[in-house]
Amino acid sequence: MDIKKLQSLVVDALEDVKAQDIALFDTTHLTSLFDRIAIASGTSNRQTKALAASVRDKVKAAGGDVYGMEGEDTGEWVLVDLGDMIVHIMQAPIRAYYRLEELWGDKPVKVGAAKRKSTDEGEEAAKPKKISSHMAAGKKEAEVKPVIEKKTPARKAAAAKPAAVKKPAAKKAAAVPAGKTIKVGKTKSAVAAAEVLKALPPKRKVAKPKADEAPVKTVIKRIKKVEE
Questions:
Q1: Could you tell me where the Low complexity compositional bias lies (predicted)?
Q2: Distances from the Cα of 84 to the Cα of 1, 30, 35, 51, 207, angstroms
């Protein structure tokens, strides 16, 4: 089997069972035993076994040869020997410990390129489909038709601040003509105070002592009488 077709089958088989970190390397310059090495990771013993079985079944279904499988008992590291290609399916800790990429990874092969299936000899590439005349005319018209850009409305200016409310002007006191007086009415408080004063009893008038009856003079008179 062609090596390109074989590596495409292997990558497809690994991706079908959701293998992680698929890496593919060209080893023709390092050894004559095989041309490719594929390394992939599985999350559990069950997944590594399923990945190895998927590679084996897919290669056999395509008419390829599977020369042997090792490590299926534990599932930590399963090796599938395809003759021209060796597939290592490992759990992440085992892969990090042995680091096979450092030993065989001088010439990595892009997985995207390996995934492309090689076409058989003599098979013509698929030709683009012809477009009918009315569809082509509509397509040309759409290309020629100018695109009118919608103008977005300009943003409205910020609303003006409301005008300050004018306070009513204080009423001016009427001018008093010369020679005239204005009677001002009494306030309620003044009227109430006047009524309270009226209700109070009248003050008593205290007679002032006569000059000769002053306390000091009377005392002096009594002392003189006693001395006599």
A1: 155-172
A2: 9, 13, 5, 19, 151
